[in-house]
Design goal:
Layout lengths: L1 E6 L2 E6 L3 E5 L8 E4 L2 E6 L2 E4 L8 E21 L4 E20 L5 E2 L3 H12 L18
Antiparallel strand pairs: 1-2, 1-5, 3-8, 4-7, 5-6, 6-9, 7-8
Length: 142
C-alpha cells in the first residue's frame, strides 16, 4: 500500500515504515503529525484518485529529528571581468517516519488498465479504405 501525499508544499510517494526527509516542520521531535492532502492511494491494486484530494484519507507520521542538509556551493563567475562570487546554502530538513495510511471515503476508483485498452481498441477498429493506385504517365515521343 502506498500513497501520494503533499507534505510542506511538496508531493511524496510514501508507504508504511518509510523514512522521508521533508522541508522543516514546526512540530517538535517525537511528536505525531497527520497529513490530510492525500491525492492517490493504492491498496494492492485498487487505486483511489482524489479530485484534488481524497476526502477522509490521511497519512500518519512521527517526527524523528530536525537537521540540516548537505552544503550546496553556488559559484558565479564572469570571464575576463575579474568577477567571482562564492556562496553556500544548507537546507533545513525534518526526518519523519510514516506510521500508517488510512484510505478515506469518497474518491474516484480508477479502472484497471486492461479494460481501458479494450474500450479504446473497440472504438478505434474501423474498416480501412484502400486507395486506388495512381495512373502512370504514358511515354510520348515528339
Amino acid at each position: 500500500m502506498y500513497a501520494i501525499v503533499e507534505i510542506a508544499g511538496q508531493q511524496f510517494k510514501v508507504s508504511k515504515d518509510l523514512k522521508v526527509y521533508v522541508n522543516r516542520l514546526t512540530n517538535e521531535e517525537g511528536s505525531k503529525v497527520s497529513f490530510d492532502k492525500v491525492y492517490l492511494v493504492d491498496d494492492n491494486g485498487s487505486i483511489s484518485i482524489g479530485a484534488p484530494a481524497i476526502e477522509g484519507a490521511s497519512v500518519e507520521a512521527k517526527v524523528l529529528q530536525h537537521l540540516k542538509g548537505d552544503k550546496v556551493i553556488i559559484f558565479k563567475k564572469k570571464r575576463r571581468k575579474g568577477y567571482k562570487k562564492r556562496n553556500g546554502h544548507r537546507q533545513y530538513l525534518t526526518q519523519i517516519v510514516i506510521e500508517g495510511i488510512t484510505a478515506g471515503g469518497t474518491a474516484k476508483k480508477a479502472a484497471p488498465k486492461k479494460a481501458a485498452v479494450e474500450a479504446t481498441t473497440e472504438e478505434a477498429v474501423a474498416p480501412k479504405v484502400k486507395k486506388a493506385p495512381k495512373a502512370k504517365k504514358e511515354d510520348t515521343q515528339e
